[in-house]
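Hallway conversation turned thread

IA: we were arguing at lunch whether anyone had actually written out 39S ribosomal protein L41, mitochondrial end to end. Turns out nobody had. So, for the record, here is the sequence (162 residues) and right after it the structure tokens. Reply here if something looks off.
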Amino acid sequence: MIKSSALINLVSKRGICLTAAREGKRNFRKFVIPNKRGSRIHKEQQMSANRELEIDKRGVRDVGYELNGKFVKVPEMIPEIIVPDLTDFKLKPYVSYKAEDVIQSEFTAEHLFNAIYSKKIAKDFQEGKLDSEGQPLEPSEEEKLQAEEAVIRAKRTGSDIF
């Protein structure tokens, strides 16, 4: 004899969906479609001025900007690759997998202070070249800098090389 609970599971069930079909269209704006993907209609829409989706540039930066529908090329925005001449270079461009790992701690403001200023401060203190407020009597070029000048120098290209 079949139990009544087993008979209930055999009865077919229908679900009711309350969302509109929107004539078969769905909201795909949140899904990124690269330029090579999509239908012919999608590609034609991307070519028009009022495109729905952003053009995927695949990581390539523009070398200019668009002004009044025309592209203006900026020479400073073109990347310049500088490659050194390695004709008589003795080392080979290979690092063996057997090479030991280099473990280095994070470079903090304290490390920077110790590398640049601490020797000069200790030397001035030992030689008695500090005034009553602790300021140097003969300041170096870095010590003479104002805060704004130091920020400008720090943001310059090549300032991280020391």
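OS: looked through it. The beta strands are 64-67, 70-73.
IA: good, adding that to the notes. The radius of gyration is 34 Å.
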